[in-house]
Amino acid sequence: MPSKLTHEEAEALVISDDPEHPANLISELCRDFYKLGWVTGTGGGISIRQGEHVYLAPSGVQKERIKPEHIFVLPFAQSSVPKPGSKRDFLRIPSKKGLSESQCTPLFWNAFTMRQAGACIHTHSQHAVMLTLLHPRDAQSFKISHQEMIKGVRIGGVGKTLSFFNTLEIPIIDNTAVEEDLTESMAAAMEEYPDAPAILVRRHGVYVWGNTWEQAKTQSECLDYLFEIAVKMLLAKLPLVGDN
Ligand SMILES: CSCCC(=O)C(=O)COP(=O)(O)O
Ligand SMILES: [Zn+2]
């Protein structure tokens, strides 16, 4: 293991009786997200940053069956965005054979480094995907106003909460064949839309972040509600912006 920690120290990073420990939370939350249809078929997931440690689920596994001992731990301090397959200095690698860290790692990293987020959630929710399909191919963003659930969303995902009278805008980026190839376009969209709390990926899903896992989760719930109602409004030919 390319870690400076002893085996015992590395294991102690993920084995805890505390239900709020990130390794326990990732396992529990992925089960909850699976029931919502957010992480079925191995896609999607959540990463949590606690201080100098980033906790990551394995790639390509049934996310609802992850156990704490399957969790990877990377130091937050990195010289560059840690892409899967590149040289990475893990603090802890699961002993189970064949596991590699989530392909979403560099995208989660965008949220940690560009927004100082404490957690980032990636869902394959059909509400998010359908919403991108109902936007014209060249649409750069999704906008919605005059919805109560907008008040559960924070400026930039980590700032003050929006008001009922604010218009929520979320950029839409094109999908790529490989998840990690979304890294640069996600970062560019985050630069261009500093107030956006999430990034929609056309025909794929959404990335949502927050200061804490609780805020990332509740914002994901508010956004998923807004995506669902927006789909229904578009199908009913109702305008998404305005209160008429
Ligand atoms: C059917 S999942 C395709 C890959 C994907 O979109 C994804 O989110 C994979 O994430 P993982 O954590 O399993 O690498
Ligand atoms: Zn995905």
From TrEMBL:
SUPFAM superfamilies: AraD/HMP-PK domain-like. Binds 1 zinc ion per subunit. One of its GO terms (cellular component) is cytoplasm. GO terms for biological process: L-methionine salvage from methylthioadenosine. Zn(2+) binds at residues 122, 124, 204. The keyword Protease does not apply. Pfam families: Aldolase_II. Pathway: Amino-acid biosynthesis; L-methionine biosynthesis via salvage pathway; L-methionine from S-methyl-5-thio-alpha-D-ribose 1-phosphate: step 2/6. Keywords: Amino-acid biosynthesis, Cytoplasm, Lyase, Metal-binding, Methionine biosynthesis, Zinc. The active site is at 148 (proton donor/acceptor). Its EC number is 4.2.1.109. GO terms for molecular function: methylthioribulose 1-phosphate dehydratase activity; zinc ion binding. Substrate binds at residue 104. It is found in: Cytoplasm. Residues 24-231 form the Class II aldolase/adducin N-terminal domain. Its main location: cytoplasm. It catalyses: 5-(methylsulfanyl)-D-ribulose 1-phosphate = 5-methylsulfanyl-2,3-dioxopentyl phosphate + H2O. InterPro entries: Aldolase_II/adducin_N, Aldolase_II/adducin_N_sf, MethylthioRu-1-P_deHdtase_MtnB, Salvage_MtnB_euk. Its cofactor is Zn(2+). Belongs to the aldolase class II family. MtnB subfamily. Catalyzes the dehydration of methylthioribulose-1-phosphate (MTRu-1-P) into 2,3-diketo-5-methylthiopentyl-1-phosphate (DK-MTP-1-P). This is Methylthioribulose-1-phosphate dehydratase.
